[in-house]
Amino acid sequence: MLISLFLALVFVTACSSPGGGSTQEPINTLQPNTTEAPGDTATAPVQSTPTEIPPTEQTSLCANIFYPVREGSTWTYASTGSPVGEYSFTDTITSVREDGFTLTSQFGDLTRTQEWACEEQGLVALQLGGTSAATLNTQDMQLNLEVKNVSGVTFPRDITAGDEWQHNLEFEGQMDIAGQSGEATGSAETSFAALGNESVTVPAGTFESMKIQVDSTLNINVGFQGLSVPVTISGTYTYWFVQDVGWVKASGTGDFGGQSFSETIELQSYNIP
Asked: N or C: which end of the chain has fewer CB within 10 A?
């Protein structure tokens, strides 16, 4: 579940196993993406679910009730109200392994890959990703980060109302802003709380979902010519997760370096093999 302002980060906002190092592709120019998702654009919405959504049969480490890890699955989202304006993106699971998978996100001309680990407790995002990465993807900013000290879980194997959990990571690397390069260090801290079931309607359909609150804070310190420049992104988002579909909506408020914003992200179409 990073990116919450993250889910993604976390959910959304999220590459090696927790505690190990990993690298993220340099983040280049973010351009609004107005193209449709490749391939089939929709599947039938979930018609109904019981009051408490039951656990799915756990057949592998990557099996997850609210995030179907299947190679070739795609989700196309559109965002309004973010600090970088309107944008859209398509997430695709491009590789699945016994102990993890690769999520590839297409933001206009920018392609970003994000590695995930599949563990007993659930799915763990091991790089920055999701909406937080989109927020940082501006025309004048590039990132090349190595993630360290990953802890917690992003999407638990089963989620019921009242559950709470956390996901944290630390990173270091390089940030280029307006042609100036500096060393970057920072951390991302995310807390999740399952609020209960709720019906939600988005362009992709109407679904019975699990409503989850995501509180996230991303702190970055960048050193430029002996000066330390702090950047903070914080936010409180509500996510709606649908069994066997994934997250279909995220809505919340945040602060990006002192600039307040209110963002909504909605699923436009999806295809799960």
From this structure: C
